[in-house]
Design a protein that fits this description.
417 residues, alpha+beta, Glucose Permease (Domain IIA), two-stranded antiparallel sheet, 17% strand, disordered N terminus
Length: 417
């Protein structure tokens, strides 16, 4: 009897003492959870950091070697865009970690509450046992009416004690796991908060580079030679976009043709039936002609579609789209449902996105300061895809609309303002 009580008292002390001493943790084993996802995120962030450093090096080399003003402008554009992307990624990751930490803290509080309840139950049990006398366990067994009943009561007492021990161990393990998770998440949060603070400082220091960027843009706007060089770059950029559009249309044609051949083969036909020709006005996208929303909520058209002569320089240019003067950093939205086909940077156009819509319609958004979508991402009409930036002519968004390989005048498609 004395041994039974002593055993239970020692168990209570052990049970309580488990949580009074320091926890022995193994961070390496805990980090296995979601390890591949964390590594992937860290690799992506590190890639952005390396790209930022690479363009910083290019800028410094350009200053030493007196590289082309336009090339240096490109470097500033690209580096600023990368820094903003890095800041955006870090902010998202920190927000997610904060949510996970809050959940961990709630789980931890629940586990500690359960632990306190179990300790109180044990304390009440011990007090009750002493009040009723030390012979309680023996009397309970001896008062049995049969050997079988005594065996059942003995087995019950043993099972009860074992179950309490298992409960204590389960809660102890749960508390250790939650505290370890909380420790790791808080450490990760501290690291990322430091990283985003570091990048914000870097972006603040980048203000001097942005001022230099604007100064270079002003020089180009007032210099005939630089202006002509910029025109050549824009023409080269336009040709590159045309090739991208042609490649996208051709790949889509080949995909549709391959699908039609597979369908014909399943139906036992030698060749698929020829596709009926469809007028633009009969397509789902075509029926929206003149009613499509604008990619920006404000701004005025300062560069029109087609051939134009610059009154100041006398130069002739051909534009595949329109330029919309809009405050720097304005939200840029997709004019229709579609899929992001291209997310890139092209000298002369800056950051740009190409969206593939139904019926071989494509839209181009250029001179973006930020891009918030990824290639192959599904896009809804009105969904933000990035923010506007600045070109040689000032804060502007360049917008194009294509039907297959034929460029369209966007003003014929967008709703009247």
């Amino acid at each position: 009897m004395y041994m039974t009580i002593l055993h239970r008292c020692c168990f209570v002390l052990l049970f309580g003492g488990v949580f009074l001493g320091p926890l022995l943790v193994n961070p390496a084993s805990a980090q296995k959870k979601g390890g591949s996802s964390v590594r992937k995120q860290q690799e992506e962030l590190e890639h952005l950091r390396e790209e930022i450093k690479r363009y910083e090096k290019r800028i410094k080399e350009g200053e030493r070697r007196e590289r082309s003003t336009l090339q240096r402008i490109d470097d500033y554009d690209r580096q600023t865009s990368l820094i903003r992307s890095l800041l955006s990624r870090l902010t998202e990751e920190i927000a997610e970690n904060r949510k996970e930490i809050a959940i961990s803290q709630l789980n931890l509080a629940t586990a500690e509450k359960e632990l306190r309840r179990l300790k109180r139950e044990y304390a009440r049990m011990i007090v009750s046992m002493y009040k009723r006398g030390r012979t309680h366990d023996t009397e309970l067994l001896l008062s049995s009416k049969s050997i079988n009943e005594m065996f059942i009561r003995s087995k019950y007492l043993k099972a009860y004690s074992e179950r309490q021990r298992q409960n204590a161990e389960e809660i102890r393990q749960r508390k250790r796991k939650i505290e370890l998770q909380k420790m790791l998440l808080e450490e990760k949060l501290r690291e990322q908060q430091f990283a985003i603070q570091e990048k914000r400082i870097e972006e603040s220091q980048l203000k001097q580079k942005v001022d230099e960027h604007k100064r270079l843009l002003t020089r180009v706007r007032h210099d005939v030679q630089s202006y002509e060089s910029q025109l050549k770059r824009k023409q080269a950029a336009a040709r590159k976009v045309e090739r991208l559009i042609a490649d996208l249309i051709e790949r889509e044609r080949q995909r549709i043709e391959a699908e039609r051949k597979r369908t014909a083969a399943k139906e036992g036909k030698a060749e698929p039936a020829p596709l009926p020709s469809k007028a633009i006005s009969n397509t789902a996208f075509g029926r929206l002609r003149g009613r499509l929303p604008w990619p920006v909520s404000q701004g005025s058209v300062v560069g029109f579609f087609g051939e134009h002569t610059n009154p100041r320089w006398g130069t002739v240019t051909i534009s595949n789209g329109i330029d919309i003067a809009v405050p720097n950093g304005s939200a840029v939205r997709s004019i229709a449902d579609g899929t992001v086909s291209v997310r890139s940077f092209i000298a002369g156009y800056g950051n740009l996105v190409i969206i593939n819509h139904d019926d071989n319609f494509l839209t181009v958004y250029a001179h973006l300061s930020e891009i918030s979508v990824q290639e192959r991402q599904k896009i809804k009409a009105g969904q933000q895809i990035g923010k506007s930036g600045e070109g040689i002519s000032g804060p502007v968004l360049h917008f194009e609309l294509w039907y297959e390989k034929i460029k369209q005048n966007p003003l014929h498609w967008l709703a009247k303002r």
